[in-house]
Amino acid sequence: MYEEATRVGLSLFFLAISSWYDLKEREVSNRVWMVFAPLGLALSLLHFHLTKDQSFLVSMGMSALIVGGFSVALFYLGLFGGADAKALICLSLTLPVQPSFVRPLLKVVSPFFAFSVLVNAVVFSSASILGIALYNLYRGFGAGENLFEGLESEPLLNKILAFFTGIKVDVNKLGKSPHYIPLETVSAGDDGSRTRRLRIFFRLGEESEEESLNEFRSLKGKVWVTPSLPFIVFITAGFVAALLLGDILMWSAAQLVNAI
Question: What is the 3-state secondary structure of 218-253?
């Protein structure tokens, strides 16, 4: 139990450090993972040495293969940051299965603990969509702001997606903060006019080039951006939830099936 609790504490410690970096800089140093991964692996191997539990060793290998492969795939698809993938790989090595000394409240867990952490993180981050939509409702109806001024010709679907995933900020804030990713592009015409378009789909990690930012600075007022979500923070919250609650999505699916 003490050895298992050590692995839990180690994971929480490194996730807390990486969350701090992610909140402050939207970037986590590789040195965090270079320490976390070997320590976590060593403690897992120590657990196997003490217990001679062959199933644990198999679970660790399967966890690293499945969770690690899934995370890397999401990274190369542009849906995941590199630090997010590394955090889950470290967790898959450190805690391949649900800690035995914790009884999740929902009593539903995944065979691979790190996968439950990922699922919970996605559930928590998805809640931000509701917050963004409520904010835009207030700006559009409560404050009477014209949310799509200059973008009237954009397709309705693009406007809906922007409404749920982005907010409008003053153009002068672009380039000064890593917390915003532009949801617009600006192109200059031969006559010197500026054409604005919504850019809904992009790879995570794409950054606006200085030339593009200069185009934005030629505008006045506000532009659409999407907040750069610190996903490591959601992974940390998902980790705590997986320990105390279990797999939220699996539990929700089970409740839905039972209700039908």
Answer: CCCCEEEEEECCCHHHHHHHHHHHHHHCECHHHHHH
Write the DSSP assignment of 52-88 as a string of letters. Answer: --HHHHHHHHHHHHHHHHHHHHHHHTTSS-HHHHHHH
Residue ranges of the alpha helices (H) in 52-177? Answer: 54-76, 82-94, 113-137, 156-165
Cβ(213)–Cβ(186) under 8 Å? no
What distance in Å separates the CA atoms of residue 71 and residue 231, rounded to the nearest whole number?
13
Query: Contact, 205 vs 81, CB < 8 A?
Result: yes
Tens-digit pLDDT profile for residues 155-214: 888 889 889 888 888 877 776 666 777 888 777 666 666 777 887 765 555 544 444 555
- CA-nearest of 81, 111, 57, 64 to 235 is 81
pLDDT top residue among 211 and 100: 100
Residue range 23-82, pLDDT digits in tens: 887 788 899 999 999 999 999 999 888 888 888 889 888 988 988 888 888 888 777 778
Neighbours of 246 (CB within 10 A): 22
Closest CA to 136 of 154, 148, 126, 127: 148
CA-CA distance, 184 to 170, in Å (whole number)? 13
Distance CA 121, CA 166 (A): 20
Q: Are 182 and 174 in contact (CB under 8 A)?
A: yes
